[in-house]
From TrEMBL, chain A:
Gene3D superfamilies: Rieske [2Fe-2S] iron-sulphur domain. The gene is nirD. PANTHER family: NITRITE REDUCTASE (NADH) SMALL SUBUNIT, PTHR40562. Residues 12-119 form the Rieske domain. This is Nitrite reductase small subunit NirD. The keyword Iron-sulfur applies. Keywords: 2Fe-2S, Iron, Iron-sulfur, Metal-binding, Nitrate assimilation, Oxidoreductase. The keyword Metal-binding applies.
TrEMBL record, chain B:
It catalyses: hydrogen sulfide + 6 oxidized [2Fe-2S]-[ferredoxin] + 3 H2O = sulfite + 6 reduced [2Fe-2S]-[ferredoxin] + 7 H(+). This is assimilatory sulfite reductase (ferredoxin). Belongs to the nitrite and sulfite reductase 4Fe-4S domain family. The gene is nirB. Transmembrane segments: none annotated. Catalyzes the reduction of sulfite to sulfide, a step in the biosynthesis of sulfur-containing amino acids and cofactors. The keyword Membrane does not apply. Its EC number is 1.8.7.1. Signal peptide: none annotated. The lineage of its organism: Bacteria, Bacillati, Actinomycetota, Actinomycetes, Kitasatosporales.
Length: 119, 869
């Protein structure tokens, strides 16, 4: 069971599903030095969003905590603790980052590939 | 929409609004204007003199401490485009033709207007003495001024600031920080003459002189002295003295910039400022003036930003023909930190009202000065606070509203130990909480009650309160909490949306049920879901306090806050710092060399911390295990600098070396630090042991502090440095060693068991019903019958302690998380970059990383020597 992320051109195999601890994330380095934060929540759902935190400008979101607000799955930045809605990437606490840009994370398509099916 | 016909109708009625000046007030006007429904029928042109859009002039001095001009920008990107505003920078208006209703700019452009708004601000006042145009003379008003001062300071040894007001002291602070011998010359007999009284001025002066700035009051500048090369070499004073100086900054006040108005025949005040009415209209109804260039209807020219903001909003309403409060005068209260000294003044600080009386407290030893001005009817009229401005948030609105105090005024000025419980100061609903945005307490309450705002963040969004200078945030928090409690909102009592229990209740649940996982706890006692950033780390801490194995084991690993998760401290660019434990601050030369070698080999930045340890900064995630391995091999262990846990037990050298010491404070500090290492608690814990009453270890500012006496040890608890300092209270005196340790054991465990999440011991102690007496009864006399339980919990912690670094290194499963990228474990993070400063590394700032071609840029992972420029 491997996890794949689509970068717009093609799927990249990034890790084994067992590499993902429920509730926590890992950082993924894609070609063009793009960084993706990949998570698995306690129900097994996978999420992939930008690793760059728009509030601190540091690539740290993979180190954040997963949570939920109401029905929405959230990611909390480890830097200044803003919460992002994992379903659409929007920051739930502030609309814009300090540089004035909208505080929205890009969401990356992610899937689990059955090793046997791939073979 | 009816399409093109509607457009044509709009086009015919489009009118022209011209704003002259794009400073803080000008930008606020644009924001207020764009919110007016009428604004869409207007075309807006802004003519500005400075080369950049509006920025935060109030925080200009932050440019000296690393901020960039971009950090100060006030105009959100996209704002101008969104509202179709035509901003023309670097082209000041040179004349106004009122008859033709047009303005001419320096570049020769002509712009027609239906309504003209002047927001030209003010110019620095430079005293009319010889030599002020010599190279080396500066004013302090714009980003360009700061650049010039900084460039000048680089080659100067001595700087003189003319003017001891707010801006002057800011400028002096900047020169001082730049390493210049700094003088301040003030014409009035005291510093900040407008805001503070003689006593406050004296306290301020003492504090500032302690910082190495020389203050000359009752002295003016009579001339700038220049050398043969024409450059500044000194300043002649009105009292005949001469000060040597390589650099002079004039910051002796400002004058309204009203020349455009004068030239076109608009009336100006006697001391300058375009005369406007309560609606900010000049004599010509088509021309308005706002901010520092205007003389308000009360005859004053305000040199503060908050009144300017109010005028900006008034003017926007006037042009939109909206009803609303006019501008009839403003609160000139101020609270700031000048050269690290807290200063505040509010209401009528000088007691000018008839029959006004003072209540004052002054302690020149600690540099605290507090004065309240009380009216004949008992109402609070104003006050001055220097050295400690804690009460400002509550007192200012009360003074501005002129309401009587509900507690005896002396309780508000005396130090906490003597004041008794002053209780909350009740504010009337019409009291202005946030003076930057003129938001009343009533409006904040209404936002919570009627608009459903359930947090300070939501109230900020809804009312703008607290989004200006931020000095009202604390007060805002308590009003929001009060209102939520009054409305019976249950979330306030519970930890978060996932648990209706408080932290103390959860602790008891975990302790009694023996549950060991978050998911079980959430399923049985919570509301389900994923949990969140509040309950996860809280439960993680409770589980760790109750001894549930390594914090990175199994599900527990997923609960830890970022720092705990990586057993290191996350720094601003995503790198980490590592702090080995140095118990009591005692370290061998061998140990120092080891730390030095590790830091050198990994290119880390090193700094001695406030807690007698050595912090190594700049490690990437994948470097952490390598660094720990070397430290652990050399006998070091984790200092828990990352966790809500015991940090340090500071010590002095005690009787072993010190000729005054009466007990061996170092040995005790080491013993206590090792006893409580790794103890997870609601907030971080700090402690200290002093060998005599001289208190070199500063034990009375700690969560627990011990001071040696000739008869034993005095134990102090509940002290705190940080944002709201609190002196510790004496819990017990002259204890022998065993009683001392047992008492601390119980105190800590009682705190861990009953405190709220992130509640410091200082706050916990003040909240504790029965206070210090109750605590004393519990830990010394076992009044609750739980002492044996507390003792047992502590001994379980001590025997269960394992070094988290060493345990992590020993487990390949735990080690796997220390890779920068799951799909490229050996690749260091390319986004984490450093640049050299003072011979060491620091995080690269935006714009520096990879963009600076000439300066060396270090990428983490590369073991490069740090180059000094």
């Amino acid at each position: 069971m491997t996890v794949q992320i689509h970068d717009g051109d093609r799927w990249h195999t990034v890790c084994a599903l067992t590499d993902l601890q429920p509730g926590r994330g890992v950082a993924v380095l894609l070609p063009e030095a793009e960084q993706v934060a990949l998570f698995r929540d306690s129900s097994g759902e996978l999420y992939a969003v930008d690793n760059l935190d728009p509030f601190s400008g540091a690539p740290v979101l993979s180190r954040g905590l997963l949570g939920s607000r109401g029905d929405r799955p959230t990611l909390i930045s480890p830097m200044y603790k803003q919460a992002f809605d994992l379903t659409d990437g929007h920051c739930l606490d502030e609309d814009t980052a300090p540089d004035g840009a909208p505080a929205v994370l890009r969401r990356w398509p992610v899937r689990v590939l059955d090793a046997e099916a791939a073979a | 929409m009816t399409g093109s016909t509607g457009m044509t109708a709009d086009d015919r009625t489009v009118r022209d609004l011209v704003l002259v000046g794009h400073g803080m007030v000008g930008q606020r006007f644009l924001e207020a204007w764009s919110e007016q429904p009428a604004a869409r029928h207007w075309r807006v042109t802004v003519l500005a003199e400075e080369p950049r859009p509006a920025y935060d002039r109030v925080h200009l001095s932050s440019l000296f401490s690393g901020s960039t001009p971009e950090d100060l920008a006030l105009c959100p990107s996209g704002f101008l485009a969104e509202h179709g505003i035509d901003l023309r920078l670097g082209d000041p208006v040179s004349a106004i033709d009122r008859a033709a209703r047009l303005v001419r700019t320096e570049s020769g452009a002509e712009v027609r207007y239906d309504v003209l708004v002047l927001a030209t601000g003010s110019v620095p006042f430079v005293p009319p003495v010889p030599g002020t145009d010599a190279p080396g003379c500066h004013v302090y008003r714009t980003i360009e001024d700061v650049d010039a001062i900084r460039a000048g300071a680089a080659t100067a040894d001595t700087g003189v600031v003319v003017g001891g007001g707010l801006l002057g002291l800011e400028a002096a602070g900047a020169l001082r920080a730049g390493g210049l011998a700094t003088h301040v010359v003030e014409f009035a007999p005291r510093l900040m003459a407008v805001q503070v009284d003689d006593g406050g001025g004296a306290a301020l002066r003492r504090k500032i002189e302690e910082l190495g700035v020389t203050v000359h009051t009752s002295a003016g500048a009579s001339g700038v002295l220049t050398g043969p090369d024409g450059r500044v070499r000194g300043l002649a004073l009105s009292d005949g003295r001469e000060l040597p100086a390589d650099l002079v900054v004039f910051s002796a006040g400002v004058r309204a910039r009203d020349q455009l108005a004068r030239d076109c025949g608009l009336p100006v005040g006697q001391r300058g400022g375009v005369v406007v009415d309560a609606h900010c209209r000049t004599e010509d109804p088509a021309v308005l003036a706002i901010g520092e260039c205007a003389q308000a209807v009360d005859g004053r020219v305000y040199g503060l930003v908050a009144p300017g903001y109010q005028m900006a909003e008034t003017a926007a309403r006037t042009i939109a023909e909206q009803q609303g409060q006019g501008f009839t005068g403003a609160d000139t209260s101020t609270k700031l930190k000048l050269l690290g000294v807290d200063v505040a003044s509010f209401g009528d600080p000088h007691g000018t009202a008839e029959g006004a009386l003072d209540v004052l407290y002054s302690d020149s030893r600690s540099g605290v000065y507090r004065k309240l001005v009380i009216g004949a009817d008992g109402a609070l009229l104003g006050g001055v606070l220097v050295g400690d401005t804690e009460g400002y948030g509550a007192l200012r609105p009360l003074a501005v509203a002129g309401k009587p105090l509900t507690v005896a005024p002396e309780q508000l000025v005396l130090p906490a130990g003597f004041a008794g419980s002053a209780g909350p100061v009740a504010l009337p609903d019409d009291a202005v909480l946030c003076s930057c945005h003129n938001v009343t307490q009533g409006a904040v309450r209404a936002a919570v009650r009627e608009q459903g705002a359930e947090s300070v963040a939501a109230v900020k969004k809804c009312t703008r309160a607290g989004t200006g200078c931020g000095s009202c945030l604390k007060q805002l928090g308590s009003v929001v909490k009060e209102e939520l409690e009054a409305a019976g909102v249950s979330t306030v009592q519970g930890l978060c949306e996932h648990f209706a229990h408080s932290r103390a209740e959860l602790y008891e649940i975990v302790r009694v049920t023996g549950l060991t996982t978050f998911s079980e706890l959430l399923a049985k006692h919570g509301t389900g879901g994923e949990g969140c950033e509040i309950c996860k780390p809280t439960v993680a801490s409770i589980l760790a306090s109750l001894g549930n194995g390594h914090i990175l084991d199994g599900e527990q690993a997923a609960l830890q806050d970022s720092n705990d998760h990586f057993l290191a401290n996350l720094q601003r660019n995503g790198s980490y710092s590592v702090v080995p434990r140095v118990p009591g601050g005692e370290i061998t030369p061998e140990g120092l060399i080891t730390i030095g070698e590790i830091a050198r080999d990994h290119g880390l930045y090193t700094k001695i911390t406030g807690g007698q340890r050595i912090d190594m900064f700049g490690a990437t995630v994948d470097q952490l295990p390598v660094i720990w391995r070397k430290l652990v091999d050399a006998g070091f262990e984790s200092g828990h600098a990352y966790g809500k846990s015991l940090r340090t037990v500071k010590s002095c050298v005690g009787q072993t070396w010190c000729r005054y010491g009466v007990q061996d404070s170092t040995t005790l500090a080491i013993e206590l630090e090792l006893r409580y290492r790794g103890l997870r608690s609601p907030h971080k814990l700090k402690a200290a042991v002093s060998g005599c009453a001289r208190e070199c270890a500063e034990a009375q500012s700690k969560d627990f502090g011990i001071i040696a006496t000739s008869a034993g040890w005095n134990l102090y608890v509940g002290g705190n440095g940080g944002m709201t300092p609190r002196h510790a209270d004496l819990l017990a005196a002259d204890l022998d060693r065993d009683t001392l340790v047992r008492t601390i054991d119980r105190y800590l465990m009682f705190y861990i068991r009953t405190a709220d999440r992130l509640e410091r011991t200082s706050v916990w102690l003040e909240r504790l019903e029965g206070g210090l007496d109750h605590l004393r009864a519990v830990v010394l006399d076992d009044s609750l019958g739980i002492a044996a339980e507390l003792d047992e919990l502590m001994s379980r912690h001590i025997s269960g302690y394992r070094d988290e670094w060493a345990e992590t290194l020993a487990d390949p499963d735990r080690m796997r998380r220390f890779a920068s990228f799951v799909n490229a474990p050996g690749t260091p993070d390319p986004a984490v970059t450093f640049v050299p400063e003072r011979g060491q590394i620091r995080p690269a700032r935006p714009g520096e990383a990879g963009h600076t071609l000439n300066a060396p840029v270090l990428v983490a992972g590369a073991r490069l020597e740090v180059l000094t420029p």
